[in-house]
Structure prediction request, 78 residues.
Amino acid sequence: MEIQLKSIMKTFQKSINKIVKITNNIEVNYPELYAILDETPMTIPSEIHPHMNIAILEDYLDSLKQILDHYIKNHPTT
Prediction:
């Protein structure tokens, strides 16, 4: 049981690290996109005490990737 919990926590931490990495990338390289992230509904629940799990984090990460990919495709650099 303890080994399983450690594995889950490690996976959870990896997901959070990926989210932080892509969010930092957006903040530094696409500040105009970062400014609207607060206004964009995301997949993370907005409840006061949401039930958080790896699937929710991965969905959120996927949504960030999709937003960034869409932005890059529609706002080519000159």
